[in-house]
Structure formats: C-alpha cells, structure tokens
Specification:
mainly beta, four-stranded antiparallel sheet, globular
Amino acid sequence: MPRLSLALFALLLFSFETLAHTKIKGRVLDKSSSIGVIGASVYLDGVNDGTFTDFEGYFQFTTKASGSIDIAATYMGYEKSVKTLNLTGE
C-alpha cells in the first residue's frame, strides 16, 4: 500500500502564534514520488481542527490547541500518516 509522507517540520510545517491561535501549514507528499497529494485530509487527532490539501498538496489551518498533539493525514488508497507536534498556542 502506498504511503503518505507528511512533510512536516524541515522547512514545510511551521506554527505561528497569533492571538492565541496557532497557524499550521505544510504539505502532504506521496512518499515514493514526492508529488503533492490532492485532497488529502489533514487534521489534529482529538480536536475538530483540520482541512484538505490543495492541488499541490499544501494545507494551512489554525487551531486553539496547545501542547503535544498528533497531526494526521489520510487519503483513500494510502496508509494514514501521523506525526506529533508540540504547539505553544499562548
């Protein structure tokens, strides 16, 4: 089964504090081809915050969540990819 690669951190995922909201952005890539995955679901586990990727696999959303939380990416035909974030959200 193909694998999604959440291109988090290393230049692609950053969090910014804005009025107690944390902005999360990044890109979901096909692990074998490094091509952006269109329409993948990206969300924070246990929180109603998330979005879908655009035509190049990029995503962006804000959250009020803070602390250590898992971010997941899913898409039909791929294995779910999960990474842990440490959000400050002060």
